[in-house]
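WARN  no MSA supplied for this record, continuing single-sequence
INFO  ligand: iron/sulfur cluster
INFO  echoing inputs
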Amino acid sequence: MEKILRRKSRKIMVGNVAVGGDSPISVQSMTNTLTSDVKATVEQIRRQEAVGCDITRCSCPDEASAKALKEITKQVNIPIVADIHFDYRLGILAADNGAACLRINPGNIGGADRVKEVVKAAKANGCSIRIGVNGGSLDKKLLTKYGEPCAEAMVESALEQAKMLEDNDFREFKISVKSSNTLMMIDAYRRLAAACDYPLHLGVTEAGGLRAGTVKSALGIGALLMEGIGDTLRVSLTADVEEEVKTGYEILKALDLRHRGVRIISCPTCARRGYDVQKTVEELERRLSHVSQNLTLAVMGCVVNGPGEAAHADFGVCGGHDGNMLYIGGKPAYKVQNENIVSELVRLVEEKVS
Ligand code: SF4
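INFO  complex generated
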């Protein structure tokens, strides 16, 4: 099976996390607390960190939020991207108060002088920038030219804004061209990938709730990753922030691009199952969510497909009516009763990662 060949992109730093080049594809999320509420924001970021979030983003709609970054960044371990719109002064304030990156669109902060000021603050603070073009907020000039939001318009906007930063001798930036339309987003990123070597931040914006948003993101982000496009990603979900991170990792795991935590291979179950596979998987997911090491578990209902899957997993269980066979390192080891499957697998995993 051939590995995915990644597009060659320039490497930038978001705090201590490298984005682009040969660095691992990072998983991002965003807080939904008031950034000015330091306690709530720190608590949420710690929850994101616990499930493997590499970078998070905080909205800075006012001075209090931008200033709060100073305290927040002291209390968390992952870099923070400050989300800025329109007011260039908030960008400067966020950079001065610990933001590792500014998500700001040079085209909507009011002219070349202001872009220059923001770039000056970014350079002084070792801060990178994300140009975040969004299909839903393209500027009027491009909408008039193209008639409606489209991939060409998004890419033109991104490259125009990239030029504004390059004119200030600044190249520490990544770009996103998100749309809530999956096909438009794929088209835009493909065009952008061919037009520049800047690292690309992938996302389907306003993707929806947990199920719909996961499917849309897996298709949009996944299609691009399969072509080698994408250096960092955020799955946008109207759901708990931890879900965004977990889903991001699931997409990367499915493409063998990055692994984190226990990967459970489980069958859909049928009348042949020897135990309650669904309940077992739910319980294992819950009890093993703290494990960051890369391990595979095969949780299979019976001998039809069980031994085959278990042979390639670190640990496995295969249902049977006279006891369920537990597999260790791909080999049958001993039998466990239904009520002991979860505790036995958890014990084996925890022993292996300790
Ligand atoms: Fe059914 Fe067995 Fe296949 Fe699971 S592994 S779906 S229990 S036949």
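The mean pLDDT is 95.
INFO  checksum written, moving to next record
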